[in-house]
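notes to self, project folder thing:

trying the whole complex as one job this time. last attempt i did each chain seperately and stitching them together was a nightmare. two parts in total, labels are on each line so i dont mix them up again. if this works i'll redo the older ones the same way
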Amino acid sequence: MCNDRTFPGVSHTVYTNMDERQLVKSCLKGKPAAQKELYDRFAEQMLGVCYRYTKSLADAEDVLQDGFVKVYRFLHTYQFEGPLGAWIRRIMVTTALNFLKKHSRYRTDLSFDNNDALHPVVENDAEVKMTARELAELIRQLPTGYQTIFNLHAVEGFTHVEIGSMLGISDGTSRSQYARARSLLISWVEKKSQIKNDHYAG
Amino acid sequence: MRDNEFEKGVQEKMEEFRLPPSAPVWVEVERSIRERKRRRILIFWFCLAGLLMAGLGGWWFWESNERPALSLTKEGNNSSVNSSTENNTKGTREEIALPAKGDKEQKINAADPTSSPSVGKDLSKNNRGETTTGRNAPLPVKISSLKQADKKTVDRDRTSKEQITAGSGKKTRKQTLPKNKVTTLLPDNDSQVATQKSTTDFPVASTSETLNNTEPPVPVTAKLDVALPAAINTAKHADTVQAVGNEKQQTKPSLRKSRKSKWQTGIVFAFGESRLTQGGLTLFSEKSFDALQSGVSNGSGNFYNQSFADSVPLRGPGIHAGLFVKRKVGKKTSFSTGINLAFYSGKQRVGEKVDSVRRISTPFNNDTREGFYRSGSSANYVNRYYYLQVPLLLHWQLNKGSKWPAIEWENGFVPSFLFGSRALVYDPAGRIFFRDNKVYNSFSLVYQTGFTATLASRTKHPLTAGVYYNYHLSRLQKVNPPDFNHQSSYGIQFRWLLKK
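result (full assembly):
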């Protein structure tokens, strides 16, 4: 599902395809230097992805570690059809979702109850005037269910149908959860921006 | 909704969001990659070893299946003349049937089974001592040295000891060969006489064969393949007779010398109990867990402290099974090796399981554990250890083994490779148990001893049964070694010999 999806958060300008091809081939030959090079190229970016899905840096690093082990394990299945970064990012997202399902501290929080049919509709589109780190911290403040769906839809670009099949929920649930998450996050962003403005004004 | 400014802003921000991971992440990733590679290599070698063992076993099995035919010919060497005579008779019949009738050539194989290499003797001589081939034309026959004295001996033997009954095309020949002589004769008018005389001891009692021949008596060429002992071949039989005719010289395949492998092969299976000990060859000296928990003195007046009592492991089942090969190295000693898969286990009393993250520092790693057990005695956790072992054992036979079953005392070392584990490590500081496979020694040297008795030794596949005890000289846990850190196992073992 969505194997050839390119993730919007991955920049591909630094490395050419030829470089990636050679790098992948070297990794497949088991060259440690190439494996390290691959890790160095994508580790920071992917830890950012993992960080958004988890509640602690240690968990994010655990996901990153498991994800990279999977990357090296299944690198032979990479067909060079899309950017390597997008392929790795896809693995990281899947690993993060598995991590959330596996660990009880996330599992209990990852409930998608559909009792509340009504969900707030936020019309205003708040401008995000904060650093990436600050925004990521706010996203992580969301309840795990909201956080996951917000990440999948707003950042990774999955549709609600896809998210529903990934998480085993209906697309309606995904929509409602996303709307709540979005509403909550906008209010937080506005609040934070207000505090910031007040701080600078004062 | 995707076109909303908010989502665009979030995406742009998240694109530039990066976090540098800590150094241990790459260390762990690299270790996982190497471990996987190492496991693949181990599996490859294990499969290769298995294939080699299977091939070796198959070869031995094939060899052992082939041996009865060879042993039959070997038995003829000593006393079983009938079997050898039968063999020869069959051989003769087959050889007689082979040539075309027009050739009038009979080839008689009087191979003596005792000889190691066969010596082909093609004698082409009629009863008057003339060399002939076929019906009329004499073939060029080379008789190097058929001594006159030998001929006389043949004549004398023939008149005195040979009874030939010839009638209506059926000829029965009965020979009584004197000791030290090999004499192969054909009926008077039909064939030639080939004589071999030997001065060495050559126990041949008698030979009888029946020839079915409906052809009229014509001079034929007798081709005798005489297999003699090597001593005779080298010294006395320079008189090689070669017949070169219109028929190609047929070479008889030499009798294969029976090759008995010195290695025995079989399977071993053992089961019993295993446990972790404090060191030394002590087995039963440890206090029970309950006694330790209740603070019972250890004998010297000191009480075990609580953290010590927490980590006391209990017994569990231990099993090992595999293939072995064994060979004699002395009159009553033998050596065996092979490959075993061993499973050792031990129960560990633990408290409740805590399913939360905890950072645990060891010299190897400093990372978080998602779940751990508190110390206590509310539950049992079974620690499991899986080894690949290559036992190197010496066996001493303690008795004759004729009247009573042979009893052997085995001693030796077993290099063992820990290829898997599912066990808890105890952290005395935090009084918690957690899983960490990296703290174990992957290689350990094991001392093994035991006694076995051979049951049903006369059967084709004897079974030996006995008791064993093995003790891991190497420590199990290399990081923060606990008090109970040496694996030991004892129980009953069976060895089933597949090939003697």
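what i see at first glance: The CA atoms of residues 47 and 64 of chain A lie 6 Å apart.
need to look closer tmrw
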